[in-house]
Structure formats: structure tokens, C-alpha cells
Write a structure and sequence with these properties.
This is Activator of Hsp90 ATPase homologue 1/2-like C-terminal domain-containing protein. Belongs to the AHA1 family. Pfam families: AHSA1 (PF08327). Residues 25-140 form the Activator of Hsp90 ATPase homologue 1/2-like C-terminal domain. This protein is an alpha+beta fold. The protein has one domain (8-172): START domain (Alpha-D-Glucose-1,6-Bisphosphate, Chain A, domain 4, 2-Layer Sandwich). It has helices spanning 28-36, 38-41, 123-141, 159-172, and strands spanning 8-12, 15-24, 46-49, 56-61, 72-80, 84-91, 94-105, 108-116. Strand 1 and strand 2 form a beta hairpin. The longest helix is centred in the last third of the chain and has 19 residues, at 123-141. It starts with 7 loop residues before the first strand and ends with a helix.
């Protein structure tokens, strides 16, 4: 199976970003829970421990095999339920400044996930990665099995597309 990439370059106040959108036939509060509640998050990407009231949590990826299950501290920079969540971390794979924004119109919620670009060279890899994880989120939210989604359908198949976005970010300066 080949999937069609959907990410796009976006200029944001926080800096240049690669953004992705997914639409859900669900209220924003339900989608918010799918991206913030540890047990629901674990269905498609990973889980967190700690107390968000402290301004940070420990996040552990659980969809990339046991060798990649190292917790990382994620600082909560902005949290406005159920519309905006911004988190930040630096780990072995780079700096991650992520913004999830939810808008609901007549029971249909659009999630826009933006990754602020710290290192333009990472786009060719992180773009397909976010496509994969967001499709796993859609699967989990609709009752499908996220485990049936195969990363090999995303990478390297989408790499050329994201190299184009990488160049667009470079050209935008």
C-alpha cells in the first residue's frame, strides 16, 4: 500500500513548521482526549507519566519497538483544552517543538499538528513519521487497529515529497 503525503510548509509566529491535518467526525473534546490522555495516547504513539500540573511529563514512545522505549521529558509550553497543546523536548533524535490545534465545526474536528523546524535536514524523515503516527491516531479513533498500519508504506516512499518541503523551508530562509 502507498499512502499520499499531506504535510505542508507553514510560516508560524513560532518559526517555520511542517504541518499536518486530520479530520475526525467527533467533538474536539474527544479528539483532545485522544492526544492528551495517557491511555488513549498509548493506543497510537506512546504514553506519559508524571503530573502535567508540574509543567512537564515523561513521554515514552511505544510504537517503535522495545529498543526505542526511552522516556523523554516533554515540557508543556501551552495547554488550552480542548483547542491547543504545545510541547517541547530535546532527545537523541533532535529538538521537538510540537503544536496541536483543534477546531470543531458542527461535530467535525480538524487536528492540525505542526512541528516547528529546528533542523531542516530532519524533515525528510520526520514528515513520513508524522504521517504514519497521525494515521495510527485516525485508526485508533475510528476503532480500527493501528497495528495494521505499516511504516514501510510511509518511508522511504514519502521521502522525496518531504525533501521538496525541506527545500521549500530552505528557500523561505
Amino acid at each position: 500500500m502507498t499512502t499520499t503525503p499531506s504535510g505542508f510548509f507553514q510560516r508560524r509566529a513560532e518559526g517555520p513548521a511542517v504541518s499536518f491535518q486530520r479530520t475526525f467526525r467527533a467533538p474536539a473534546a474527544d479528539v483532545w482526549d485522544a492526544i492528551t490522555e495517557s491511555d488513549r495516547l498509548a493506543r497510537w504513539i506512546g504514553y506519559w507519566t508524571g503530573d502535567p500540573a508540574d509543567g512537564h511529563v515523561q513521554f515514552t514512545m511505544n510504537a517503535e519497538g522495545d529498543e526505542n522505549m526511552t522516556p523523554a521529558r516533554y515540557d508543556i509550553r501551552r495547554c488550552e483544552p480542548p483547542t491547543v497543546l504545545q510541547v517541547h523536548t530535546t532527545d537523541d533524535f533532535g529538538t521537538w517543538d510540537l503544536i496541536a490545534e483543534l477546531t470543531e465545526v458542527e461535530g467535525v474536528t480538524t487536528l492540525t499538528l505542526s512541528q516547528i523546524i529546528d533542523d531542516v535536514a530532519t524533515i525528510e524523515n520526520t514528515g513520513p513519521g508524522w504521517e504514519y503516527y497521525l494515521d495510527r491516531l485516525v485508526a485508533a479513533a475510528t476503532g480500527a487497529d493501528p497495528e495494521l498500519i505499516d511504516f514501510d508504506d510511509y518511508y522511504p516512499a514519502q521521502q522525496a515529497y518531504y525533501l521538496g518541503i525541506q527545500q521549500e523551508v530552505v528557500d523561505a530562509g
